[in-house]
Amino acid sequence: MKTLREVMTSEVEICNPKDNVFEAAVKMKDNDCGAIPICEGEELIGMITDRDIVVRGVAEKKPNSTAVTDIMTENLMTAGADMSVDDAAKMMAENQIRRLPIVDGNRLVGIVALGDLAVHTSTEDEAGYALSEISEQQHYHH
């Protein structure tokens, strides 16, 4: 059974608490991604998503200079690198999560996107189920 360590992206672009929304958006564009973890040193403190920028930033008329910490998602669900891919897919489906930060304690060591699980899982049923469950729901966490 594959673990998240085998499928996670370990070179993760991050923002620090001093970064602003504009800088986060540029990192998303440059890295073709929809979420950037926010880390203080190596400690994961939140994540900013493209949806956070739209809903908590633009829709609330906050300037691009707004700190990422003002609109980031906090209290993230995370997983350890030794969690199985199948267990992660189930957790992501049950909690409507598209991107799962991988931590060692509070230290960010990687990230797994739902698409990573669909590509790497030996039983594509779990990742496919997770994708269909998340896609059908109206709310998203991160």
TrEMBL record:
Tell me the keywords, alphabetical order: CBS domain
UniProt xrefs under CDD domains? CBS_pair_HRP1_like
Domain named CBS: residues: 8-66, 72-127
- What InterPro entries has UniProt attached to this entry? CBS_dom, Diverse_CBS-Domain
One short Pfam name that applies is: CBS
Would I find Nucleotide-binding among this entry's keywords?
A: no
Can you say what this protein is called? CBS domain-containing protein
Instruction: Please give the organism.
Output: Evansella tamaricis
